[in-house]
Amino acid sequence: MILFDSFLIYAALAGLGVAIAAAPLGCFVVWRRMAYFGDATAHASILGVALALSFEMSIFAGVLIVSLLMAATVSTLSNRGYAMDTVLGVLAHSALAFGLVAVSFLQGVRIDLMAYLFGEILAVGPMDLTVIWGGALLVLGLLWWRWSALLTATLNPDLAYAAGIDPRREQLVLTLALALVVAVAIKVVGVLLIAAMLIIPAATARPFASTPERMALMAAFIGSISAFGGLQLAFTFDTPTGPTIVCLAAILFAVSNVANLLFRSPST
Amino acid sequence: MSLVTLQNLSVRHSGNPVLTDVNFSITKGEIVTVVGPNGSGKSTLLRSIIGALQPSSGQINRAPDLRIGYVPQKLHIDATLPLTVRRFLSLPKRVSNSVAKTALDRAGAANLADRQMSRLSGGQFQRVLLARALLCDPQLLILDEATQGLDQPGSASFYQQIETVRQQLGCAVLMVSHELHVVMAASDRVICLNGHVCCEGEPEQVASAPEYRALFGTGTHGALALYRHEHNHSHDSDCDHDHHNHEAAE
């Protein structure tokens, strides 16, 4: 019974950590229309898993390195005349494909692949929890520190320059935060569904928020409910946990939109 | 006292020269308007002055501790970003309620504080941008085609607001405008730009300069004709600049 309790508590805490780090970052992903960028970074991280396993590094480090490389490649290529969605479409799926192929070369890993694709929140141990919360706090700290500058750069690069802020540096901060979130979330929701944890809570919060800060707080709340509730539902119905969390988030999104349609006039 | 001085400023965009050897300065309290065809480097000039673009050669000297208020050409605020006017004014630096209120009052946007940015009309939006530029109590106010997308009365009342602001604050104003009649009425000095400074001076001087007419024509091309049709129609340019593209359009 003790065992049962502790792994559920670890899982709940892990979900909470990911939810509150992903929420404010997810808001920026929504505001800056970087949804596909988040997806690409997340998909590339399976390559990081392969790398980490073959060089016997920690998964966290491998994923972080590859995510950062991916983000840098995307930024470079998008300045070369390709449309952003084309660049991301090429890179995201090739990185995923190469990652899957690379993992298949590794002995004895094949059985674990599902865990990386869809997460394995119930296998979170104290060590994982430390990494997840460390990463989450780092992301929150980074966003807290740069919040005003990030918002200004998101509004308009020239307004940022006029205020002495370098928008390219702020972009870099977001990229770094994104790589961190991907690295900590891979264990919880898996490579394929990380972008959902970024975007869905932020999108759900949007109709009810009047300032950026409120939107971020509400997104964190909605993300946390999804994580707790999803865990509970997955346990009750014996469904895969990561996808169940995302399903619940999606249902909340649908409910929030219906509620918004019903209770507010169309103009607001 | 000169607020900003440009010496032989040249700026390139991905290898192509946009501005070549531009010399320019603006002094306290002066209203200077930059005119020129599309792609003549007007925005580039302003963005260099605020520091958003690095010159490829030449120098930009700003007065020590110069406070610049910048009103951008257009600012699209994504509807996904919830943002009240009041919160917008506190970006990136938090400002007190009284400072925000003063700026909104000065910009003629007194009642907009609680509105969402993405739901403002074009004219209201520009006034909020103006209010934001006024927060720092600027010595130099820079406007980049601030009335683009406004109708005639809207843009006229916006420029009236600018004039009021200048009288209240005594700030210099540097603006880009396509509306030549406004330019001629409101500016102390006009700079005609086409990759280089074609000509500059008081509005009347510039309007009669052959370089200017080569760019804008003397006929139906600008509202200018309403004001300056008494000038003789000489298209013969004695300057050695390249104006052919624009003459072809006449």
From TrEMBL, chain A:
Gene3D superfamilies: ABC transporter involved in vitamin B12 uptake, BtuC
Main location: membrane
Subcellular location: Cell membrane
TM annotation in the entry: 6-31, 43-70, 90-109, 121-145, 176-203, 215-235, 241-263
Alphabetical list of Pfam families matching this protein: ABC-3 (PF00950)
Keyword annotations from UniProtKB, A to Z: Cell membrane, Ion transport, Membrane, Transmembrane, Transmembrane helix, Transport, Zinc, Zinc transport
Record's keyword annotation contains Lipoprotein: no
Entry protein name: High-affinity zinc uptake system membrane protein ZnuB
Species of provenance: Parasedimentitalea denitrificans
UniProtKB/TrEMBL annotation, chain B:
CDD domains: ABC_Metallic_Cations
Pfam families in the cross-refs: ABC_tran
Superkingdom of origin: Bacteria
Keywords, ordered alphabetically: ATP-binding, Cell membrane, Ion transport, Membrane, Nucleotide-binding, Translocase, Transport, Zinc, Zinc transport
The ABC transporter domain, residue ranges: 4-219
GO molecular function, one term: ATP binding
This protein's name: Zinc ABC transporter ATP-binding protein ZnuC
Protein's organism: Parasedimentitalea denitrificans
The organism's taxonomic lineage, starting at the top: Bacteria, Pseudomonadati, Pseudomonadota, Alphaproteobacteria, Rhodobacterales
